[in-house]
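Before a colleague's protein record goes any further, I have to sign it off. I want your independent view on whether this chain really folds as the tokens say. The record follows directly below this note.
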Amino acid sequence: MFSSADKVAGQGVGSAYKELIGLLKDHFSDEFDVKINDYHASDLSHYHTIDPQFYLSTFSKKRGRKIGYVHFLPETLEGSIKLPEPAKSVFYKYVISFYKRMDQIVVVNPTFIDKLVAHGLDRKKIKYIPNFVSTENFYEKTAEEKADFRKKLGIPEDKFVVFGDGQVQERKGVDDFYKLAQTNPDIQFIWAGGFSFGKITDGYDRYKDMIENAPSNMTFTGIVDRNDLVNYYNICDLFLLPSYDELFPMSVLEAFSCGAPVLLRDLELYRAIIDGYYQKADGFADMNAFINKANQDRSILDDFKKKSREATNQYSEENLSKIWYDFYTSQYNIANGINNE
């Protein structure tokens, strides 16, 4: 495994990486010998991030069969980071060049397959494997535990809470989340996340000002450790991710796993992976209408809690462990000239 994903806090790539490492350790410690950022000879080299030193390593025969994990494309970086030209064009070309160095590509969303093909990659070398979260880390807490955490935050038990999670950037739809808080002063809004990319975050100065001047019912927690995020998912009445573009957001899977009802902007990419498990919204007006409806009649969220549990079962660690085992075994066989049939 080659990755620096866990060096930058508050991003989904790091969460997905940690979940996979945990899965391999818990389920296949006897079957697979996994090394992290080790440049000794290996049968398979799975790249989770596109660091320059990793790119250079792809030219070594010691790397065996090279597997690339695609968590983003150049176009999905729009609204996340702000780079001046020509640095932007150079970096975007580098991203695709890195992917083309791979013998096999894994995407976390099937809608990415056609986009990668459009960038010149071979469709036959691309496989879709969804993200997942462990229910040992993200789970429904007891009513007493939820009440205790609300008390710790100073939130009344009967207060309607809308929770969102992700980096503070335009792509995540933070502007709509903020506007919803301004429009609904009787509802508590909480956003967990910060500037993982620092000052090169697109719109950094504007969002910094928003955080410093947020209304009293809007809380920006900053980057929250994954071990603490479970508490926020559990105390919210509704999880909202108003992103304009996503891959396979770990935050949504985490919300599902904690039994939280989920409200999302209606994006094509969601329909391909989690259709039927969440409430769709075309934009701000739809989000605002549903939030107010749910606040007035909270029983309508019961069905969405049930859907979250169903989604958790589909994208469980148990289900994905077999998929990853079969995938790595197949790649090992290809690397060593063994017939997979």
